[in-house]
Fold:
Amino acid sequence: MVSLVIFLPLVGAVLTMLARSESAIRWSALLVTSATFLLSLGLYFQFDPGVSTQAVPQMAQISDLWFPDSMDIKYFVGIDGLNLLLIMLTTLLGPIVVLSSWTYIGKNHKPYYTLLLVLQTGVTGVFAAFDIFLFYIFFELTLIPMYFIIGIWGGENRVYAAVKFVIYTLVGSLLMLVALIFLGYAAGDAINAGVFTTDWYKLVAFNMPLGTQNWLFLLFALAFAIKVPLFPLHTWLPDAHVQAPTGGSVVLAGVLLKMGTYGLVRFCLPFFPNAAQDYAMLFAVLAVIGIVYGALVSRAQTDAKKLVAYSSVSHLGFVVLGIFAFNVEAMQGAMIQMINHGISTGALFLIVGMLYERRHTREMSDYGGIAKSVPVLTFFMVVSVLASAGLPGLNGFVGEFLILIGSFSSTSLASPWLVVVATTGVILAAVYLLYMVYAMFWGTLDRDENRDMKDLNKRELGLLIPLAVLMVVMGLAPSPFLAKSEPAVKDLLETIETKRLAAEEMASSAQALPLTID
Amino acid sequence: MDSASLIYAILLFPLAGAAINGLLGLFMPSWRKQERLIGILGTAMVALPFAAFVVLFLSFDGNASITRFFTWMAAGDLTIDFAYRIDQLSLLMGLVVTGVGSLIHVYSIGYMHGDDGFWRFFAYLNLFIFMMLNLILGDNLVVLFLGWEGVGLCSYLLIGFWYRNLANSAAANKAFIMNRVGDFAFLVAMFILFREVGALDMSSLIAAGSSMDPTMLSLAVFLLFMGATGKSAQIPLFTWLPDAMAGPTPVSALIHAATMVTSGLYLLARLSPLVLLAPGVMTLIAIVGATTALVAATIAITQNDIKKVLAYSTVSQLGYMFVATGVGAFYVAIFHVMTHAFFKGCLFLGSGSVIHGMHHVEHELAHDGHGHKLDPQDMRTMGGLKQFMPATRMTFLISTLAIAGIPLLAGFFSKDEILFKAFEAASFGFPAAWFVWGVGLMTALLTAIYMIRAYVLTFEGSPRWPHADTLHPHESPASMTVPLWVLAGLSVVGGFLGIPAVIAHGDLNWIHHWLAGDHGPVAERLFDGHVALAMEWALIALGSGVAIVGVTLGWRWYTRQGLAFDDALASRFGGLWKLFQGKYFVDEAYDKAIVRPIIGGARYVFAPFDKYVVDGLVNGTAFLTRALSFVLKYFQTGLVPSYAVGIVFGVVLIVWLMLF
Structure:
């Protein structure tokens, strides 16, 4: 079933390629993504957090057809607490992105929807893979469709943005590939009878010597930090967002960025626990800088889409901080914040896109007072803004609160002051987000073109209502979602701790050894 | 009905009211015209919880009960339930919030009549009540915080209710952001408490208080107080409240006088056993409260906008409540919260009635062709309204006397008790309280004067608006005057809930018993000694005397000289008057010292830094790579001879390296 959820969009991509008419293309894309979402609901309900995934993921599918026996590379996918919600987010955003492109995309319908579907397969595969080589293939697979989506259907500067996006990501991921191959051989020699392996479970079981850990950790972490993006590696993001069509932005913010934070959790922490611990402070500091810095730069923007783009830098900073706090509260906060950010920022990009479709401008000064002409759109905007600003009762608060309260008690992060600084992000979020609402929605409606704007149509309502409902549900009752990931997060943290102590012991006994011989 | 279902009802009615009026109004434009339906629904959704509170109050057996609905969030050691606490404190606050809230809903039916945002108004108001109830009933700090930020949101929405005027929206933003500064402190306090205690529910926190590291405890209490200064408009975070008057007047009465702004006091009373363990912070609270009371009173005396006077008066009265908190008399703070809800609610609604009347005059003037412009809130163009608005005038007068502290009215009892508690604290080893007591007494005098000034300038004398001989405002409809009379009545009798021991020759102080008695949740600072009986009487005489002198002086000055007296004061006090009138230029200072540096920094430092330095490095790297490849590409010519030359050179080089 997991494979079906991964590859159904790819089948859909073939369908859209074969489709004759414009509407057949759109409808088949919508149908396939909706069907995928419904299928993935099966995953959600079938997944039982009570069943341990420490030896094998749930609903696992393994086949080793692809590679010779001399290499232990498999097609290995499955579900555990770490990826379930992210896969759900991906499949949920699928039909939403298709619907958001319904009228926005004005040219080359066929390749657009085909690429969109390929992209979904790539992202789902990234999250579902339990073989890191397979992960890598999917990871790279997402680059190509996104490159074209930005490069063909983007704004004025689309080629620059697309190239920057691809090269930036490639720099990181190629370094990761080197590290990955090194890791596979090292682990193979140590625990897999000399056979190169990329099986996640085997790699987690393998204890890397301390010195090598540092290098491999940094190579992996760099690739993911670029993807997140972590300050100061973030500048590809605003360019990509502003140039990408709405659908592209929603996928980008909603799930593509999460491949970075997910990679940190899934690979960097359990593979290289000592290095991760040693570098925790560095990453936490960069994350906190990102929170404050992203918020301040966001406030300075005049382009609404760019403002929302920089807000992602700030919000993802919270996630990274939570990941490197090494405790259950903060890590759980990070997990749920990934989902929440996808929902609320996704909604913000959708709304900015809807305004762009009406007025063909993203400059905030071109608007003003439009609450009068588009009250329903305003309602959804205000709800999304509040969710994004972390108002309790809506989803954004849950993640931020858990991350901050967990990080504050963290023994890995040396200073609670860091968390205090991060908490100022709560004030700053209100500053830049309310400014956007203030500048665009309140005041007198003094331009004719704004006065004649149409409010949301049924399709647009259909896009925003599910997201708004989720903001409220996940704000007031996040526990069922948190419960899905908690056991896995606990296991992960325990594994990390055990491995870390073991490696330290090994290192100290290795040091002690020559002395005893003497 | 059992209490759990009553609590369900209490919380869900206002939420349902907000959802129905809000969503129907949003998606069904025909609903927006159903003023009567909207108003009745909105009011019922607050009146029913009030009835439920009455039932709970009457059947209360003295023991706190906690009702858990479901888990909000759980991760690791942290579990936050939607749990609600019924005890003496939350019952009293609940009665005030839903009681005064119901009256203000009724009033709003008349006040907002004809406004095209009628539906929105009632939806916001109901949402506010829901959030306020979360704040006072929440059994852990996080649910309390949900209410805390929720009321802040409603305050934002209602201050900016008339969003077509961008100034209103700016005031709304200011209120929200300033409150968030306080909320930031609140959050950090929760982080500290969770780290130290491992839980955030009230009982665990209070139980852990004495075993906590005193420094951490003091820090947490200090941060909670900082949060309170945001919500309850104290120095340094008070400047949002006067601007918040941009909202419709019922909002000013409900949110910015009677309920939301008292949340800070509620929070500190709720955690009073913890606050008592941080005496240093308490001293700070008392001093900040007293200073705020005086500063705001001096500003109030110079304002001409009737709502601004009341706004600064609210800041000042909240200062009194912090004084009570700071000297350890938490129950007195709550007592003043209650009486203040009555008389300040009445005053704000009265001012709304006046504005309603003057609005009519403004409207008539605008259409008579003379181009007269009238600010319906400016007292300088009012005067003599008593003949046109008798009910408004009478209720306004009653509540003016109540806030001034005229004996036996509500404000007299609560304010006197605050001053007495400060005196008591000062006498028994809390020297800072002398300052607090003195400032409190001085502020009491100023309060009487500025309130009488506002009353006289509005209602006495002769009308000062253009064409006053022919153009008359009308009294407001019954939906507005009935709530006024109810609140005025409460302003008369409300104080008897807290009769000081000395007057009744025995302990008839109900509110003390209720809140701080054997089972009461509110702690108090106890002193090893008593103020002598004669001294107590002397203090009561002093307090009454100050109020009476203030009222009499104000009455004589302003009935005889009217506005001219302001000018006389202005020329007499010169620079000082300008300072007061300019609101101590705090807004300007904040703007220069904080707002501009942040916004300017974002625009002129951080954004360019991002564009030219961070991104510049990225593009610079790309450029270098391209430049390098530009050079290198000449080596990759595709011509076999040039490769051959290269190979030869290479071989020579390797051989050379191997040989030497």
Summary: Chain B is about 70% helix and 5% strand.
